[in-house]
Specification:
The complex is a heterodimer of chains A (87) and B (297). Chain A has 87 residues and is α+β, with helices and mostly antiparallel strands. Chain A contains 2 helices and 4 strands, in the order E-E-E-H-E-H. Chain B is an alpha/beta fold. Chain B is built from 12 helices and 10 strands. Chain B has an 8-stranded parallel β-barrel, surrounded by 5 helices. Chain B has a two-stranded antiparallel sheet with strand order 9-10. The chains are: A alpha+beta (87), B alpha/beta (297). The interface between A and B is medium-sized, with 18 and 14 residues.
Chain lengths: 87, 297
């Protein structure tokens, strides 16, 4: 499945994450992540985001994520919301 | 033994920090709110976040209640469908009337069957906040066997009645009486409206005592700082517990001696007094203030 427009979900408040998604014209999945806990949890956050994208069967998506210390359940929820809004 | 609902704490459904801290704040129940605490543009986001929170977070012994949007909006049925599938303990149905409760009951029957949950395992609390709902509260509770309580929404009710909401709360005297009486008759919990001035602890204590005095069994809260005050009002005092235990002991002795009634400290003990004492002792046991055998801890 492909997304068709730009959308975002989440906030920049503590414990949350702001996710912005847009269609990737090359059909790739690209992720740009900023996090206040990048050194400790950067890889895990990336895995959670990409797992959710894969689970939803999305191809051709660019994701920009600004993390403020969100737990996995919040990351997954915000990615799902952003993608649902972009379909 | 049934769960206590002395406090039901409202938490905004789109705030991850609050959702993950909700279990440790001391409330008997938490209400994850998808209705008034969430803006129209964030309904989808909050619904997904609350679903993920319930799936992930261990809320331990705290009852997880989700306030869905009214069933006559586009959001309400979507809330019920998504949230019930992760099995919260209870759904709080706003602007409840008979039809809404029956509809939710049907939706929950279907979801429980599809998900393989025991039939009737997701409970309902009716939020009474309209004049029509209040006048029909007996039938609202009777509309589903899942209904375990009524929460009185004083703000919306007074708005519907076109009257001013005051700190003293005289304007909801009738509503509190009606809800308390119906709930007692149907053996479900009667939860009072929140006290909205979060910095006035004295006012909160008085308001809670007033509700307890009219027969309500718990109170909703809008700030964790209100929990301790509400619990202190709803807990039986040591003197009340001691007297209740003495009444039950005196009655037991009278029964052994084949007497129909007895007296304690010069006052006759009859059925209503015994019933009240039994309720006090039951609450003391549930709160861990006395042991199951009736001995003080």
């Amino acid at each position: 499945m492909k997304i068709t427009k730009v959308a975002k979900a989440g906030t920049l408040e503590s414990n949350d994450i702001l996710i912005m998604v847009k269609p990737n014209e090359l059909g790739k999945t690209e992720l740009e992540l900023e996090s206040i806990v990048m050194q400790q949890f950067g890889e895990v956050i990336e895995q959670v985001i990409l797992h959710k994208v894969q689970e939803m069967g999305i191809e051709g998506i660019s994701i920009k994520a600004q993390d403020k210390g969100a737990l996995d359940y919040t990351i997954a929820a915000r990615v799902e919301t952003a993608i649902s809004r972009a379909i | 033994m049934e769960k206590l609902r002395r406090t039901m704490l409202f938490m905004p459904g789109n705030n991850p920090g609050m959702l993950q801290d909700a279990a440790i704040l001391g409330a008997d129940s938490i209400i994850l709110d998808l209705e008034d605490a969430v803006s129209l543009t964030e309904k989808d986001s909050a619904r997904i976040l609350v679903r993920e929170a319930i799936k992930t977070i261990d809320y331990s012994q705290v009852e997880v209640v989700v306030r869905v949007n009214p069933l006559d909006t586009e959001f309400g049925p979507q809330d019920v469908d998504m949230i019930a599938r992760v099995k919260p303990d209870t759904l709080l149905i706003p602007k409840a009337n008979e039809e809404e409760i029956k509809l939710v009951d049907i939706l929950l029957d279907k979801i429980e069957k599809e998900e393989g949950y025991p039939p009737g395992s997701i409970k309902i609390i009716a939020l009474i906040e309209t004049a029509l709902g209040l006048e029909n509260v007996y039938n609202v509770v009777q509309a589903s066997t899942r209904t375990v309580g009524v929460l009185l929404g004083g703000e919306d009710l007074t708005a519907d009645l076109g009257i001013e909401r005051t700190k003293e709360g005289e304007e909801i005297f009738y509503a509190r009486n009606k809800v308390a009486t119906v709930c007692r008759a149907l053996k479900v919990d009667a939860i009072d409206t929140p006290f909205t001035d979060i910095n006035d602890y004295e006012g909160l204590e008085k308001d809670t005592a007033k509700a307890k005095g009219l027969g309500l069994t718990g109170k909703s809260a809008i700030n964790p700082r209100q929990i301790e005050t509400i619990h202190s009002v709803f807990a039986p005092t040591e003197d009340e517990l001691k007297r209740a235990l003495r009444i039950l002991d005196a009655m037991e002795e009278a029964e052994k001696e084949g007497k129909g009634c007895c007296s304690l400290d010069g006052k006759m003990i009859d059925a209503p007094v015994i019933n009240r004492a039994a309720c006090t002792v039951d609450q003391g046991i549930r709160l861990g203030l006395i042991s199951g055998e009736g001995g003080a801890r």
